[in-house]
Amino acid sequence: MNVTRGFTGRPRVQNAALPPGQYDAGDDWPVLSAEVTPELTPAEWTFRVDGLVEEPRTWSWEQAHELPTSAYEGDIHCVTSWSKFGVRFGGVSLDRFLDVVRPHVSATHAVAYSHTGYTTNLPLADLTGGRAWIAWEFDGEPLAAEHGGPARLLVPHLYFWKSAKWIAGLRILDHDEPGFWEQNGYHARGNPWEEQRYSGD
Amino acid sequence: MTDMTVTAEAMTEAAVTEAAVTESAVPETFTPPTRFAVPGRIAVSNRVAALWQTATITEIRRETPHAATFRLAVPDWAGHLPGQHLMLRLIARDGYVAQRHYSIASAPDDSGHIELTLDHVEGGEVSGWFHSVAEPGDTVEVRGPVSGFFAWPGDRPALLIGAGSGVVPLMSMVRHHRARGLDVPLRLLVSARSPEELIYAREYGAETTPVFTRSAPEGVAVGRMAATYVAPLLAEQPPGGWEAYVCGSNGFAEHASRLLVAAGQPVDRIRIERFG
């Protein structure tokens, strides 16, 4: 690491909640999707879980809303270096969906995919145990389309490209398959605390 | 660490390009049963993307009152394709690190140099350093290029729409098109507040239509990017249609991508890079 002449940077914030290399974006919530924002209504939205499961299943908007609701209050971290503190999402824990489909014991990973065709891969262990949600509310309001509404995947302990917008489904697998950004040089897991930004980090 | 994999289409295109491409196995990857999927354009070298290199500023050129171009010597630069970006970091004496993604402005060449054009962002710690402190001879660290998604190898007809400093990766494509004397059709629609704020104003040719939102030269309309600019280009498409590349703020990207869709451009052939 070479010190940059004359560079001092922002005032140092002693914030143990800020992962390495990240800064606090404050009230900003940048939008970075690489595709056209789809015009998807709740009536058109569906969520399917299949692959290595006992009972593949597709939920409609109403059916998904019959599951017990759950909220996430905490922080999110984008690989482009911004973090956003104290966000509040509402939806359903992914555990409730997986309880219904029952993944096989051989299942280790999942590819999450969007209604736009976007994909991202995740270890199943990152999607279970109350650490992942299907989210349709932000700050008590319906999730905006540009932020993934009507519903997105939410996996806040990983970089936010893993939290697929306009979530359409999960394919449960017994191996890891790189998704959209992961095929474009990004890290397979994306843990912000280990700064797993790019493949090889 | 898993190896990078690419789609069959991306490999075919990668094979005809010269820069920033790895040899990768091509295992089947999951294709979702949803409406469309935007395939990556090229494979990205995970080895190159992992390595921080020292870059030395060799030249600083003012483009507009708020934007300047910084030419960097990067002796071991692996090459890039137009549209790709890099990661750049500045390091303070106490070890504090600030890193940002920046699009590459220069066309690929073998000069051992690359160029970045940066807006002076209000309160920006990295762009502020570049605009207020940086001088030729200063060094920064870069890694990349990264992301093959927004890359244009120069193969397909390209319709480029940018606003403000969103024109930077698109200019790399225009420069590449010129430097190689490519025949493939290429058009650029670039939006700026005024002629003074139009980055690269002197470099544009017949391929470019500027759109001015606040003030324009005499006889030129003032207004937002609109269907009147986009629709005619889609009405007279080259064989095989356009690959569309949109770059700018999120607001601009949403607006421009809706114009493209309304004019008939397929959503799976619109690639968007938003500031953030």
TrEMBL record, chain A:
Residues 1-24 are annotated as: Disordered. InterPro entries: OxRdtase_Mopterin-bd_dom (IPR000572), OxRdtase_Mopterin-bd_sf (IPR036374). Gene3D superfamilies: Oxidoreductase, molybdopterin-binding domain (3.90.420.10). SUPFAM superfamilies: Oxidoreductase molybdopterin-binding domain. Residues 37-181 form the Oxidoreductase molybdopterin-binding domain. PANTHER family: OXIDOREDUCTASE MOLYBDOPTERIN-BINDING DOMAIN-CONTAINING PROTEIN (PTHR43032:SF4), PROTEIN-METHIONINE-SULFOXIDE REDUCTASE (PTHR43032). This is Sulfite oxidase-like oxidoreductase.
